């Protein structure tokens, strides 16, 4: 129950704890740290908490606890994780997904306020198209395309991106300067090259032009771009551009800390991203939707997975315990573009069945899979979209790491046998 006075609205401990997703005892820890204001109710028996502060804390994210075992803390000014969404240099990623194109958000991640001086909103929101800086090296693309000769036609795009990254690096002799302007220029060329070196999805190749999202569409979808779905795709790229110190980003930062060039940084990130518990999770969600012929089959397919002890991909998040707002936003854009699409109905049925079985809330991986299914994209499109988008974040973290001039060198907590002080002749 809420109470109002001239100082604003105050809510009880149970309501505040539920909104923040914490135990009531944690509220008092926030009070002791000056994060949250508390006062006694008129009856003197209950504590009340400032509702506005609770709401702000819920949106911005709970105060970070000290790192626990197995965790590494690195100071960063790029991305903060809120209760259900990321914030890029203080800007809500969901707001950016509706207002800005991928290129502008990438520049914001790389340079912060400098990028905001000349904003260039997404062409899908009425702004000008991206500039000429986002152009691939013709020589690099030629080398990357040649490197793919002989590969299976049905090779997943993410596997191709790993090869393409290495090939593009060999064709860029000026990839070694690590100052911010040089890395920014390399980043734009690299991302454009990743997209343009992928084989076209349509039988008759379509020239790659326009925004990065428009070019990527021609590589992932054999159909001509549909404005609403293209808008959803670009929003997905913005929502996935960074996510603090995810495993792939940590790998990218480690590479950057030893002064590896931007291509090597991206190669490090791609290798980790492919894991099924990271970017590869969208492919698992894609396969799940592919198993379901129609909405009526959702209960059976999910039931079989659970009976077999399998995890249902596309649900739950390690950080967003109460729900992933990125998924909610992306599903909303898909629904606006194709409200009556049969594959969206399948995704909705999967979510309904998950709710019935009390599974966690859907995450961005399921929303990516739904986008691919509704748009008719090639297999593995979701994880490829994830990879291209997250490249922006990896390179932002690389630039931050280059400026630190310090190597990330964790130490092991040794748990093996203690060496014999008298020496040893070696293994028995």
Per CATH, what is the topology of the largest domain?
Citrate Synthase, domain 1
Largest beta sheet, briefly?
4 strands, antiparallel
CA-atom Rg in angstroms: 24 Å
CATH superfamily of the largest domain: Citrate Synthase, domain 1
Strand order of the largest sheet: 1-2-4-3
Please state the overall shape, judged from the principal axes of the Cα atoms: globular
In whole angstroms, the N-to-C terminal distance is 70 Å
Strand content: 5-15%
Overall number of structural domains: 2
Classification by helices and strands: mainly alpha
- Provide mean pLDDT, rounded: 88
Helix content: 40-55%
Instruction: List the helices and strands in order.
Output: EEHHEEHEEEHHHHHHHHHHHHHHHH
The CATH architecture of the largest domain would be Orthogonal Bundle
Unreliable stretches: 116-128
Give structural notes:
The chain is mostly helical and 428 residues long. It folds into two domains: 2-60, Multidrug-efflux Transporter Regulator, Chain: A, Domain 2, CATH 1.10.1660.10; 93-407, Orthogonal Bundle (Citrate Synthase, domain 1), CATH 1.10.580. It has helices at residues 13-20, 24-32, 51-60, 93-99, 102-111, 113-116, 138-147, 157-170, 180-196, 212-220, 227-239, 247-257, 262-273, 281-291, 298-307, 325-337, 342-356, 364-375, 381-404, and strands spanning 2-5, 8-12, 38-40, 47-50, 79-81, 86-88, 91-92. The strands form two sheets. Strands 1-2-4-3 form a four-stranded antiparallel beta sheet. Strands 5-6-7 form a three-stranded antiparallel beta sheet. Strand 1 and strand 2 (8-12) form a beta hairpin. Helix 5 runs parallel beside helix 19 (381-404), helix 11 (227-239) packs antiparallel against helix 16 and helix 17 packs antiparallel against helix 18. It is globular, with a radius of gyration of 24 Å.
